[in-house]
Design brief:
With 441 residues, the chain is mainly alpha-helical. The chain contains 17 helices and no strands. Helix 10 (242-253) crosses helix 11 (258-280). The longest helix has 32 residues, at 15-46. It is globular and about 60 Å long.
């Protein structure tokens, strides 16, 4: 075997996946640039944290409404054709936003409409994209492919916001939207170059194989599953609203500009990567560690809220990013280690929905707190929510135990949980949800 095989990057031998990854590396950076620019644009037009929260919520609602339908559609239609269409539509929306901003005719109402349209495109793009990776690389290389994709997302998350700050300072807000629109041209080009005859044939889903109600019933009946899910519901609503908290902190707490917001977001990305590395080497996930991770995240957020300068808060955001991915990873791995094997997929889907699906509720609440009480209060709220939730759940977590599984199975679950943790944590800092629950095949 070659070094490529041993390194875990054997999926890069597949031509279609290389093309896909090329387009994604550019598109994800462009999406992060648009995220920074859009948040800053809302604050520039309105100066309102509440409206920033509502615009963010408008992008997540369609994903929750149409996500299940998109998954069913991906099983019955060509994923390649659907993704080609979503790339074109996303590029056109970014281009329209760029024109509206550059001609100075953009208004609050148009931002709501465009946010909802962007969220609708993402609602179809995301679950289909997840399945499409499997279709490109097949079962033997899916683990490596997901890992490579996660690495690309992490790099894009660090680079994109930092570049956005520089572009906004030098060329204005519209430049980020234009760059994002051009990034979709690259995506469409790479998709058109793929050899469709090389795709793995799709498998038809079994009848009744994704019964969500059965998943809810199993979770509610087992406190080992119920407690972490309820913790995620509260913490997801109040602590994972960084797409609202960070621009408010940058602008109103420290008098910064879009570049400051970009650096805060990039710092969280660095922390997410470092936290993922630490968690991957910290041993078996457990319910107790879920509690410790929630406590660590809460303390980190409270410390960040008290930082006196932009430099110190940027450093604090690295710690917050590490704590954030630690909580997500520990909770995800623990749920998968505890849930019955045949229910793991449904339990994980419920978990991600609990964490990110609360944005339409938590986003406006945190935005209102930032506007009425102050930007630092958004992080105080999140930190207190983490600490109190950990304290309330502590007794239940201490009594819980995980299923006895082999070391190989546990290692596989925890490795996947780290990747998912980094990606889902990125969604909490982005107004573009890209990792809502989806089937891998």
């Amino acid at each position: 075997m070659s070094a490529l095989d041993h390194s875990g990057f054997a999926s890069l031998r597949i031509r279609n996946f290389r093309l896909y990854l090329t387009g994604q590396s550019i598109s994800q950076a462009g999406t992060w640039m648009q995220t920074v620019a859009l948040g800053w644009l809302v604050l520039k037009l309105t100066g309102s944290g509440s409206l920033l929260g509502l615009v963010t919520a408008a992008q997540f609602v369609p994903a929750l409404l149409f996500g299940p339908y998109a998954g069913a559609l991906s099983d019955r239609r060509s994923r390649w054709h659907i993704l080609m269409l979503t790339q074109v539509l996303a590029g056109l929306l970014a281009g329209l936003l760029a024109v509206l901003v550059s001609t100075d005719v953009v208004g609050v109402w148009s931002l709501f409409v465009l946010a909802a349209l962007i969220g609708t495109v993402n609602a179809f793009d995301v679950p289909i994209r997840s399945s499409f990776v499997y279709e490109m690389v097949g079962p033997d290389e899916i683990t490596g492919a997901v890992g490579v994709g996660s690495t690309v997302n992490n790099v894009s998350r660090i680079v994109g916001p930092a570049v956005a700050g520089g572009l906004i300072a030098g060329l204005g807000l519209a430049s980020c939207f234009y760059v994002n629109a051009l990034s979709y041209v690259v995506c469409v080009t790479t998709f058109s170059m793929m050899r469709r005859r090389d795709f793995v044939p799709k498998k038809q889903p079994e009848e009744g194989s994704g019964n969500v109600r059965e998943g809810v019933r199993v979770v509610w009946a087992d406190p080992r599953l119920r407690t972490p899910l309820l913790m995620s519901l509260v913490i997801g609503a109040l602590a994972y609203e960084n797409q609202i908290s960070l621009p408010l902190l940058a602008k109103y707490a420290f008098g910064g500009d879009a570049g400051s917001y970009g650096f805060l977001s990039s710092a969280m990305g660095v922390g997410s990567v470092l936290g993922g590395l630490v968690v991957a080497r910290s041993g078996r996930a457990s319910h107790r560690r879920v509690g410790y991770a929630a406590l660590f995240l809460g303390v980190a957020m409270l410390a960040a809220s008290a930082m006196p300068s932009m430099g110190t808060v940027i450093a604090a955001m690295v710690v917050v990013g590490a704590g954030s991915v630690a909580f997500i990873t520990m909770t995800s791995a623990t749920l998968q280690l505890t849930a019955p094997v045949e229910m793991r997929g449904r339990v994980l889907a419920l978990y991600v929905t609990a964490l990110l699906g609360t944005t339409p509720i938590g986003g406006p609440v945190i935005g209102w707190i930032g506007q009425v009480v102050g930007p630092r209060a958004t992080y105080v709220t999140g930190g207190v929510a983490c600490v109190v939730t950990a304290a309330v759940a502590w007794r239940s977590l201490a009594r819980a135990h995980e299923q006895a599984v082999s070391e190989e199975e546990a290692t596989a679950i925890e490795a996947r949980a780290v990747r998912e943790g980094e990606e889902v944590e990125a969604d909490s800092a982005s107004a573009m949800p890209v990792n809502l629950p989806a089937d891998e095949h």
